[in-house]
């Protein structure tokens, strides 16, 4: 369709290049989303008619003054765009941005509409794309939860890694819903290396499975649950530590697979069921946090999976759950809250130090 658009008019390629060469796009939407779910869906995809999804940076401003951001991953990961948006929100909140004169400059050039030449074939292609887009989006559910029971302030009092702790919330919630632990991807930054992007931190471990089973076992004592939790946490922190040093297994295996020539036979390891199952990410997770953000997220990476984005702020936790509707994302949304509350109740009994008496 891109080639057909270029061929449909003599100026189309030049007009397309203007969009593609821009540093960022500003999307001015006529809609006025109110709830977190509505805003998140609008920032995830909108109606598809006012987005250019190949662009790495898109700022969206809605009719009612709310605003958001869409980042496309192939150019960069979430960390730099998170810092960009955190800078914008923080400096605005602190009143440090000089907005200049309220009078429009007389020297400012007027906006120029890019009039693409369209033929019958392109119009039909656009109509087909609109239908495909609406059908795809209609199959998905998205739910945002701002859990205000506690945040990293209390988690640190438990002497736990906030990120690892929230990963265990996700593990417990998934186990509550599905009765089993499945492959979980957490992004690990390897930007300390030249051209470094990410490695995979695999959250599920023998220790995490033992802990979630214990949490759902009414005959397991609070002390036993807490002891198993500490082991699960240690396993996760250890794996993440290895991953950020470039010592994970997934990028290494990816490199080996990509080094195969087209005529070469795949080694047996890459054809075994255990390999494909272990890389079928039923949970795709990652953390980006900002005190001024009201949620962020992405879609699932496999049809029977979930995209679970989370933020760990001082006094609250945020979860964005997206998946196909048939996977009931609203139920995982519910179980995340339930898991977080149960863990607080347990660890306030077993991990908080008793206050020292004053003479």
UniProtKB/TrEMBL annotation:
<dbReference type="GO" id="GO:0004092">
    <property type="term" value="F:carnitine O-acetyltransferase activity"/>
</dbReference>
<dbReference type="InterPro" id="IPR000542">
    <property type="entry name" value="Carn_acyl_trans"/>
</dbReference>
<dbReference type="InterPro" id="IPR039551">
    <property type="entry name" value="Cho/carn_acyl_trans"/>
</dbReference>
<keyword id="KW-0808">Transferase</keyword>
<protein>
    <submittedName>
        <fullName>Carnitine O-acetyltransferase mitochondrial</fullName>
    </submittedName>
</protein>
<comment type="similarity">
    <text>Belongs to the carnitine/choline acetyltransferase family.</text>
</comment>
<dbReference type="GO" id="GO:0005777">
    <property type="term" value="C:peroxisome"/>
</dbReference>
<keyword id="KW-0012">Acyltransferase</keyword>
<feature type="domain" description="Choline/carnitine acyltransferase">
    <location>
        <begin position="1"/>
        <end position="337"/>
    </location>
</feature>
<dbReference type="InterPro" id="IPR023213">
    <property type="entry name" value="CAT-like_dom_sf"/>
</dbReference>
<dbReference type="Pfam" id="PF00755">
    <property type="entry name" value="Carn_acyltransf"/>
</dbReference>
<dbReference type="GO" id="GO:0009437">
    <property type="term" value="P:carnitine metabolic process"/>
</dbReference>
<dbReference type="InterPro" id="IPR042231">
    <property type="entry name" value="Cho/carn_acyl_trans_2"/>
</dbReference>
<dbReference type="GO" id="GO:0005739">
    <property type="term" value="C:mitochondrion"/>
</dbReference>
<feature type="active site" description="Proton acceptor">
    <location>
        <position position="73"/>
    </location>
</feature>
